[in-house]
Amino acid sequence: MGPSNIFPPSASLKYSMVVLAILFAAVLVFPEQALAKNAGITRNYKFNIKMQNVTRLCQTKSIVTVNGQFPGPRIIAREGDHLLIKVVNHVKYNMTIHWHGIRQLRSGWADGPAYITQCPIQTGHSYVYNFTVTGQRGTLFWHAHISWLRATVYGPIVILPKKHVPYPFPQPHKEVPIIFGEWWKTDTEKLISQALQTGGAPNVSDAYTINGLPGPSYNCSAKDTFKLKVKPGKTYLLRMINAALNDELFFSIANHTLTVVETDAVYVKPFKTKVVLITPGQTTNVLLKVKSKAPNANFLIAARPYATGPAAFDNTTTGGILEYEQPASSASKNRTRKLTLLKPALPRFNDTNFATKFSNQIRSLATAKFPVNVPKKVDRRFFFTVGLGLNPCPKNQTCQGPNNTMLAASINNVSFVQPNVSLLQSHFFNKSKGVYTTDFPANPPFKFNYTGTPPKNLMVNSGTKVVSLPFNCRVEVVMQDTSIIAAESHPLHLHGFNFFVVGQGFGNFDPNKDPAKFNLVDPAERNTVGVPSGGWVAIRFLADNPGVWFMHCHLEVHTSWGLKMAWLVMDGKGPKQKLQPPPSDLPKC
Ligand SMILES: *[C@@H]1O[C@H](CO)[C@@H](O)[C@H](O)[C@H]1NC(C)=O
Ligand SMILES: *[C@@H]1O[C@H](CO)[C@@H](O)[C@H](O)[C@H]1NC(C)=O
Ligand SMILES: *[C@@H]1O[C@H](CO)[C@@H](O)[C@H](O)[C@H]1NC(C)=O
Ligand SMILES: *[C@@H]1O[C@H](CO)[C@@H](O)[C@H](O)[C@H]1NC(C)=O
Ligand SMILES: *[C@@H]1O[C@H](CO)[C@@H](O)[C@H](O)[C@H]1NC(C)=O
Ligand SMILES: *[C@@H]1O[C@H](CO)[C@@H](O)[C@H](O)[C@H]1NC(C)=O
Ligand SMILES: *[C@@H]1O[C@H](CO)[C@@H](O)[C@H](O)[C@H]1NC(C)=O
Ligand SMILES: *[C@@H]1O[C@H](CO)[C@@H](O)[C@H](O)[C@H]1NC(C)=O
Ligand SMILES: *[C@@H]1O[C@H](CO)[C@@H](O)[C@H](O)[C@H]1NC(C)=O
Ligand SMILES: *[C@@H]1O[C@H](CO)[C@@H](O)[C@H](O)[C@H]1NC(C)=O
Ligand SMILES: *[C@@H]1O[C@H](CO)[C@@H](O)[C@H](O)[C@H]1NC(C)=O
Ligand SMILES: *[C@@H]1O[C@H](CO)[C@@H](O)[C@H](O)[C@H]1NC(C)=O
Ligand SMILES: [Cu+2]
């Protein structure tokens, strides 16, 4: 029996996150069947995809939700558990759900990106996502993986360590998810479909949210503010998730220091910081040790963007409030007194220096219990340019991209064209002809000064191309930002694997000098990494998971423009090295 059956649906959406935060402590004493020490249990969840009216920023809007909740329900499991999540689609949109960061060992059919590993779940249909959480513990999240529906369809995944296995840091008093989102007053499905027709950039969002709530900096939103009530002297584990569509975020709590202990469900060497940078697709666990005595103040919890491109961005700030439980005596005496609200200092919107320093601090634990399995040798090397580009305007139309073009984005100048059947099915049933080709280029079509003056012709090529890899191939990918249209940070997300961030730098990657500086000792292990604006990042992974694995920018607007590709990992020879056949309820196109 899964937690979904135990946690009652919360009556009030507005308070649901607060309620969940309180219930969260109960998870740690959650009754489980007595089973062999390492055998996981099966947890069942039901996700009814349905419309729900939600009011934010003084406007009521009908949004797509899971079970009417916004943000959606929390998935809780322990390392080793099996998950069966039945998704039933009651809305007019096609739907898929992605379990972001879950490795999906040999269970690629449950990964979720539309037309990559499955056809969408159509209106009135359902699909059971069936997978096991193997070798992972920490915070991840789930979200819709079709069009822009993840704007409102997202929620946390909390993976606790196996029973009786402690964290490699002090046990927190409480654990609290902090999930960032992005809110538009307008219908986001209309927004992106119009933008893709006109070729222009879609309008930026109207607000950011913390656990679905914009907070006091927005018009008529003071009542929609996330509150974190703390007991003096205690330590809290904040499970932070950036589920925003298009914006990397700086996060800080006034007058408090945070200790980063985990990123993308991998423990890291703890380090202290006032500010956290979190890109869309990343998750970060931090310990918050609060002051030992309740101060006479409240503290703003704030997040606002890190933005590097020239494009317009939502430059607003979302806020929550950290409140101390006051001692009973003072509370009664001072009940009516309004505490001052202290505000944190956040880096400037374009503070790339901070971004670089922050990401360099993230290091794997590299202990006997949590070793770093970074490939020391490499079988296949790839050099990928990532960035924007243009498509010509169709005849008879005027377009809103620069000089009457359409904005596009690409990897190695290939702008990915979404097929109309799923790549994984086409691969499994040997029906790739006319769906995809395996000639995705290992290098850009021509060399230029990637971060200098762009070439004259900015037009992209288009195609549905993948890279085919043998099982257990050791892969290195250098991702190089380009200044085409403009240099910009791109958070690249890889499905099906964690990778190791072995190096990064500014300007053009130098294949002769830079590899000597790679960190093969304690590199960060994660599923999403920011390609530095005007720079490069080098990652390595072991292709030990057969299937078709999407890799894309987690800024949804760039994905929509084609900044995506897929890796096709072949079966290995061993019996446990093969992709399983598809489940019988796999949706059809
Ligand atoms: C949302 O509000 C509209 C207009 O008031 C109403 O017609 C509709 O039934 C509501 N939808 C839901 C799911 O409550
Ligand atoms: C889930 O997948 C496992 C492994 O493939 C399989 O044994 C099991 O029967 C599946 N469960 C359901 C309910 O489909
Ligand atoms: C985008 O914003 C402009 C200016 O605020 C507005 O006129 C337009 O209607 C918006 N477009 C959409 C699709 O919401
Ligand atoms: C703020 O909301 C009020 C309604 O509560 C509205 O009258 C006012 O125009 C709004 N202001 C802005 C700047 O949107
Ligand atoms: C907040 O921090 C400032 C600067 O460090 C300090 O002067 C002030 O006393 C702090 N206030 C509280 C209530 O902790
Ligand atoms: C946000 O952007 C708007 C429009 O570009 C600008 O007027 C405003 O000053 C900016 N606000 C902040 C806090 O930078
Ligand atoms: C109660 O409020 C008064 C006046 O603001 C302040 O001087 C006093 O320190 C407060 N007492 C406590 C226990 O915080
Ligand atoms: C950041 O923005 C400020 C003002 O908006 C500008 O003066 C500065 O040059 C920018 N810094 C970088 C590194 O782009
Ligand atoms: C393009 O415009 C011409 C003349 O206005 C018209 O005859 C033709 O049908 C249009 N073609 C398309 C594809 O809209
Ligand atoms: C648009 O055209 C102008 C004039 O030909 C040129 O200077 C500019 O670089 C072009 N912009 C883009 C993004 O191609
Ligand atoms: C590339 O362009 C940058 C920025 O204009 C410049 O500083 C750098 O020297 C150029 N590199 C090469 C190899 O030309
Ligand atoms: C939903 O998915 C099916 C199968 O791929 C497709 O035929 C249909 O056009 C899609 N509907 C919408 C509204 O996108
Ligand atoms: Cu991007």
From TrEMBL:
Look up the record and name the cofactor or cofactors this protein needs.
Cu cation
Domain Plastocyanin-like span(s) in chain numbering: 49-163, 175-326, 440-571
PROSITE patterns (alphabetical): MULTICOPPER_OXIDASE1 (PS00079), MULTICOPPER_OXIDASE2 (PS00080)
Q: InterPro entries in the record, alphabetically?
A: Cu-oxidase-like_N, Cu-oxidase_2nd, Cu-oxidase_C, Cu-oxidase_fam, Cu_oxidase_CS, Cu_oxidase_Cu_BS, Cupredoxin, CuRO_1_LCC
* A biological process from GO: lignin catabolic process
Location in the cell: Secreted, Extracellular space, Apoplast
Task: Please give one Pfam family short name.
Answer: Cu-oxidase
Q: Which residues form the signal peptide?
A: 1-36
Q: Which GO cellular component does the record give, naming just one?
A: apoplast
Q: Where are the transmembrane segments?
A: none
Cofactor, free-text remark: Binds 4 Cu cations per monomer.
From what superkingdom does this record's organism come?
Eukaryota
* Broad EC category: oxidoreductase
Q: What is its EC number?
A: 1.10.3.2
Q: Which CDD domains match?
A: CuRO_1_LCC_plant, CuRO_2_LCC_plant, CuRO_3_LCC_plant
Q: Which GO terms describe its molecular function?
A: copper ion binding; hydroquinone:oxygen oxidoreductase activity
Reactions catalysed, semicolon-separated, are: 4 hydroquinone + O2 = 4 benzosemiquinone + 2 H2O
Q: Which UniProt keywords apply?
A: Apoplast, Copper, Glycoprotein, Lignin degradation, Metal-binding, Oxidoreductase, Repeat, Secreted, Signal
Annotated function? Lignin degradation and detoxification of lignin-derived products.
Entries under NCBIfam families matching the protein = laccase (TIGR03389)
> Which family is annotated?
Belongs to the multicopper oxidase family.
Q: What protein name does the entry list?
A: Laccase
